[in-house]
């Protein structure tokens, strides 16, 4: 797992580095599987127009951290947000198959809670590290002109999900 944390929120406000605060509570058997990187992303407090620029910079930092640690261009790379969860069996199959190019993972999109299905979602990618790079990762995720082989029923995207407290207060 690669975890990159910035000192600003998606919307550009300063925030603490939470992973630092909780690192000692992570069991060593799990901590040794985590690659940590912190990204220094330029920001202006609350400038939401730059939210996606910050997100794209964060994604590039993550991929560079993987390349630095595991440089083999044949390594399988999964590019997804934290709320985009691929099927475990699919990941195993893709890893064993040694796919030569990137594929798009078609996921079931669940909005607000696991009971609210809203159709498909296709932003997560899988492919060899030599194909998905820090320079092209964002265009691969967002450019609908690029034709990928789509893998259907590839997992779930839990979007806009909140804590139970949020929903109690919302009602």
Furnish the topology, listing elements before pairings:
Elements: E1 2-6, H1 18-22, H2 28-31, E2 35-39, H3 51-69, E3 76-79, E4 84-86, H4 88-97, E5 103-111, E6 117-128, H5 137-142, E7 149-151, E8 155-159, H6 164-170
Parallel strand pairs: 1-2, 5-7, 5-8
Antiparallel strand pairs: 3-6, 4-8, 5-6
Task: Give start-end ranges of low-pLDDT stretches.
Answer: none
The strand count comes to 8
Major sheet attributes: 6 strands, mixed
Q: How confident overall, as mean pLDDT?
A: 82
C-alpha termini separation: 36 Å
Estimate the strand proportion.
25-35%
Classify the secondary structure makeup into a structural class. alpha/beta
Helix and strand sequence: EHHEHEEHEEHEEH
Q: Which range best describes the helical content: under 10%, 10-25%, 25-40%, 40-55%, 55-70% or over 70%?
A: 25-40%
Rg over CA atoms, rounded to whole Å, is 17 Å
Number of helices: 6
Shape by Cα distribution: globular
Structure commentary:
The structure is a single chain. The chain has 171 residues and is an alpha/beta fold. 30% of the residues lie in helices and 27% in strands. The chain has helices at residues 18-22, 28-31, 51-69, 88-97, 137-142, 164-170; strands at residues 2-6, 35-39, 76-79, 84-86, 103-111, 117-128, 149-151, 155-159. The strands form two sheets. Strands 3, 4, 5, 6, 7 and 8 form a six-stranded mixed sheet that branches. A two-stranded parallel ribbon has the order 1-2. It starts with a strand and ends with a helix.
